[in-house]
Specification:
By secondary structure, the chain is α/β, with parallel strands linked by helices. The protein has helices at residues 19-36, 57-65, 85-98, 113-119, 126-141, 179-186, 195-198, 203-218, 240-256, 266-272, 280-292, 309-327, and strands at 2-7, 40-43, 72-79, 103-108, 146-149, 154-158, 171-175, 190-193, 228-236, 276-278, 297-301. The protein has a single domain (2-327), classed as TIM Barrel. The strands form two sheets. It has an eight-stranded parallel β-barrel, surrounded by seven helices. It starts with a strand and ends in a 10-residue tail after the last helix. InterPro entries: Bact_Lucif_Oxidored (IPR050766), Luciferase-like_dom (IPR011251), Luciferase-like_sf (IPR036661).
Length: 337
């Protein structure tokens, strides 16, 4: 199983931690993730609200590319609906070059009302706009000379002057609803999802994966290895009670910033099972269950709600050095640190 890091980078302007301090902490987390053998460092894109403080993941990933050498660098997600596909393709081709071929491009259509309002876009048209923009980004990243007359874009004989190292760049489509899993699979695409927002309890993750694999099978893809990644809030501590003491207040603060979505506080998320909170043994058991469901890539979200940096780094280390060995899912291709 691949273990990765996912960072929303939620910011709290009324609290003492500055944006610069947050960014410095996340850079340190990425360096430590590489040392610990994490696979990918995924960064979210958000606008106009403290829920997330990275409006352009390409800029942040470019910085990460110069402080790491092996860690893959991912977007979770790049919101294609808001941007000119030419700019998106150029930005991420440059990231792939700067990182020497380490980009993982997660894409989505967006879901936050204030972001659509800020860009002056109609959310009712987001699916059409996303589909057109995704098609163009893929063609541009493949090096095509693109001419296109569409509903949202007009392009005449344009080819990127900076090509990505990878051909093709691995691309993932993010979903928010269980029913979308089948459709993404039917398109033969990789998938990202956050169960917190998509399902009601831990076992439903397995049902979503069944839907996804059914779609993949209809697309002629029988092997789902490496095709899906799931994001879960994570804090690994010596005991389950230690995890509660360390993480409950931070998680509840994080939940307060969520807009337009159900708000599951710490006790709710423990009841639903949609997290990796607890002792190494508790977390190992859940990782093993995820593997039984067919998942082989977990995006662990350790940094949330002003969690102190020492506790973030401690949880990251406990996940890799204690929980993973107990789960029986330790990767054979990454040397122990």
């Amino acid at each position: 199983m691949k273990m990765s890091i996912f960072s929303v980078q939620d910011h709290y302007p009324s609290q003492p931690r500055t944006l610069g301090q947050l960014y410095s902490q996340v850079l340190e987390q990425a360096r430590r993730a590489e040392q610990l053998g994490y696979d990918t460092f995924w960064v979210a894109e958000h606008h106009f609200h403290e829920y997330g403080a990275v409006p352009n993941p390409a800029v942040f990933l470019a910085a990460l590319s110069q402080q790491t050498s092996r860690l893959r660098l991912g977007t979770a997600i790049s919101i294609l609906t808001f941007h000119n596909p030419l700019t998106v393709a150029e930005n991420y081709a440059l990231v792939d070059q700067l990182s020497q071929g380490r980009l993982a491009l997660g894409v989505g259509s967006g879901y936050l009302k204030h972001e659509f309002d800020g860009y002056g876009l109609d959310p009712a048209a987001k699916r059409e706009r996303f589909d057109e923009n995704l098609m163009l980004v893929e063609r541009l990243l493949r090096g095509e000379c693109v001419t296109h007359e569409g509903k949202f874009n007009t392009i005449r004989e344009v080819r990127l002057n900076v090509r990505p190292v990878q051909d093709p760049v691995p691309l993932y489509v993010a979903i928010l609803r269980r029913e979308a899993a089948y459709h993404v699979g039917r398109q033969g695409r990789r998938m990202l999802f956050v169960p917190y927002a998509a399902v009601d309890d831990f076992e439903e993750i397995g049902q979503m994966m069944q839907d996804y694999r059914r779609g993949l099978a209809e697309a002629g893809i029988e092997d789902a290895a490496g095709m899906a990644a799931v994001a879960l809030h994570t804090h690994v501590a010596p005991t389950d009670e230690d995890a509660r003491v360390r993480a409950a207040r931070a998680f509840d603060l994080y939940v307060e910033t969520r807009l337009y979505a159900r708000k599951q506080v710490y006790d709710d998320i423990i009841a639903s099972g949609l997290s990796l909170f607890g002792s190494p043994a508790t977390v190992a058991g859940k990782l093993a269950r995820l593997a039984e469901m067919g998942l082989d890539h977990v995006m662990s979200l350790h940094n949330f709600g002003l969690m102190p940096q020492d506790l973030v780094l401690d949880s990251m280390q406990r996940l890799m050095e204690q929980a993973m060995p107990l789960s029986g899912l330790v990767r054979k291709d990454v040397p122990a640190v």
